[in-house]
Amino acid sequence: MNFRYVFNTVSLILKYISVVMLVPCICALIFKEYNACIPFVAASVLSYLLSILTKGKEKSGVDINNINRGETLAIVLFAWILFSLVSSVTFLYFGLKPVDALFESVSGVTTTGATILTDFSLYPKTMFFWRSFSQWLGGMGILVLFIAILPQFAIAGRQMFFAESPGASSTESRLTPRIRQTAAVLWGIYFVLTLLEIGILIYAGMPVFDSVCNSLSSLSGGGFSPAEESIIQYGNYKFFWIIAVFMFLSGMNFALQYKIYIKRNFLALFKDDEFKLYFMVVTGFTILIAITLTTHHIYPVKKAIESAFFQVVSIITTTGFASVDYNQWNLRAKLLLFLLMFTGASIGSASGGVKLLRIVFIFKYLKRQISKIYHPNGVYPIKINRVIVNEDIVKEMVSFVMFYYAIFAISAVILVYLEQNTVTGLSSAIASLGNVGPGFGSIGPMGNYSSLHTISKLIFIINMLIGRLELVPFLALLHPDFWSFKKINNLQKKTTI
After folding, report:
1. Do residues 243 and 127 lie in contact, with contact meaning Cβ atoms separated by under 8 Å?
2. Nearest Cα to 249, choosing from 172, 189, 331, 183?
3. How far is residue 151 CA from its own chain's centroid?
4. Which residue has the higher pLDDT, 233 or 177?
5. From CA 419, how far away is CA 291, in angstroms rounded?
6. What gap in Å lies between CA 104 and CA 95, rounded to an integer?
7. Is the dihedral of CA 30, 35, 36, 41 positive or negative?
């Protein structure tokens, strides 16, 4: 690995992050919260200084378009970690302890939505805007945004695009001949849907500031709200349904939405295996939970359906918004929500988790392995959307799911031990790894993560980053070549000589 390529590219990313960090100052000026500009200016300056420190010499002749896959993974990993660290400076200014500030920052940029805040009245609107805006940037991917608008990533952008969103296959995500145009198309759809939700919420009566923040958080699958009690606090079912619909859209593959909105190919919905499963899971779990809530006399039928649909969509898209306190539901209803935390929505969407397409694949893979018991010489290709899956992708899928649930199991055991509570430990492990946010027990929709052990919070920070970047950059850390900077550079010098 050539560290000059890595740090020159990270330097460029940090330079533009320094610009992004100034956006909340607009909100501070609008609401006359002038002091609230200070942390964002400081974070911007820090990001710019880091970009200078990480930049190589101009005469070194480093071309970022020459980076390989390993270097790309390193760039994505370091960029997200440094973005989280820079963002945490803003929370330090507002009185959070270092670990809590980093937790809140990572929870924002990874669109997890878990919080350690206990009293929202202590903080200015500018901070709440940044929480939602950072989720919006993380939902589609800040590197994907830079690829869309910066010509410097004309070639290297392709590798960075798939390194930041490894679940999106090149065949499905290359909507246009150039990856920069593809990134622009995806961000364009994302941006327009966000504006549409903001407008509809304002028209329905939600305050403008709340409409902006809740829209940024729902389209990104984030879940941060300026309301302390999440969406419950508004007590308006018009808002619940509007937000639920846009959360559902955030859980759809944006490449599929491009085919529908831009290409007018409405039949694509019925041909997509993952969307059909997504729709069936949402519908099925909504019906099951609604029946459970009604038969146990928790809610009347109408409220049971509304609450069930909102929470099913919120959990499967890993948004984490709450229209009711589902901690008060009976065990069966909570168990169904808990199962949804292990799935996620669609690949190529803003949701976290394993993603439904991988679950479809695993069932097809298991079916093939069972068939091979009886017919070992038989050929059983696995098809997704009527296309045969390459065997290399088969191995990648199996490895991903295996490592994902292994990380969940290890972190869950440690968290149960640290917190001395099985419900909190299990639900917080999957809620952080799946970027869901709230779990059950003390970290339920009306709770927060503030009282948990410091080591637990550090585990959550790692889990949230792993979940958002879908393992691959972190697995690359385990390979010796990831760290062999000197060896490769020396080899390059000898080759030059």
Report:
1. no
2. 189
3. 25
4. 233
5. 33
6. 12
7. positive
Structure letter (DSSP) for residue 348: T
Which letter, b or e, does each residue of 42-78 get, where b requires 16 or more Cβ atoms within 10 Å of its Cβ?
bbbebbbebbeebbeeeeeebebeebeebbbbbbbbb
pTM of the model: 0.91
- Closest-CA residue to 348 (of 139, 86, 42): 139
- In angstroms, rounded to a whole number, what is the distance separating the alpha carbons of residues 91 and 100? 8
Q: 3-state DSSP helix/strand/coil percent for the chain, to nearest 5?
A: 70, 0, 30
The set of residues, in sequence order, having a beta carbon less than 8 Å from that of 430 and lying 6+ positions away, is 338, 341, 342, 408, 412, 436, 439
Give the Cα-Cα-Cα angle 36, 42, 43 (nearest 5 degrees): 100
**Helix 125-140, helix 69-93: angle, nearest 10:** 170
Q: Any idea which residue has 């038989």 for tokens?
A: 378
Q: Which residues of 195-205 are buried (b: 16+ CB within 10 A; e: fewer)?
A: eebbebbeeee
Token output for 424: 């909190």
pLDDT tens for residues 433-462? 999 999 999 999 999 999 999 999 999 999
**100 — pLDDT class (breaks 50, 70, 90):** very high
Give me the DSSP letters along 353-401.
SS-HHHHHHHHHHHHHHHHHHH-TT-----EETTEEPPHHHHHHHHHHH
The 8-class DSSP code of residue 222 comes to -
What amino acid occupies position 376?
A: P
Question: ∠ CA 16-211-344 to the nearest 5 degrees?
Answer: 70
DSSP one-letter code for 117 = -
> How far is residue 119's CA from residue 228's CA, in Å, rounded to a whole number?
8
Phi, psi of 383 (to 5 degrees): -115, 135
- Burial label for 362, CB within 10 Å (0-12, 13-18, 19+), is middle
How many residues are recorded in the chain?
A: 497
Question: Hey, what's the torsion of the CAs at 278, 284, 289, 294, to 10 degrees?
Answer: 140
**The pLDDT of residue 336:** 96
The radius of gyration computed from the CA coordinates of the chain, to the nearest angstrom, equals: 22
Q: How far is CA 348 from the centre of its chain?
A: 11
* 87 contacts 39 by C-beta, under 8 angstroms: no
Tokens of 398: 């199996």
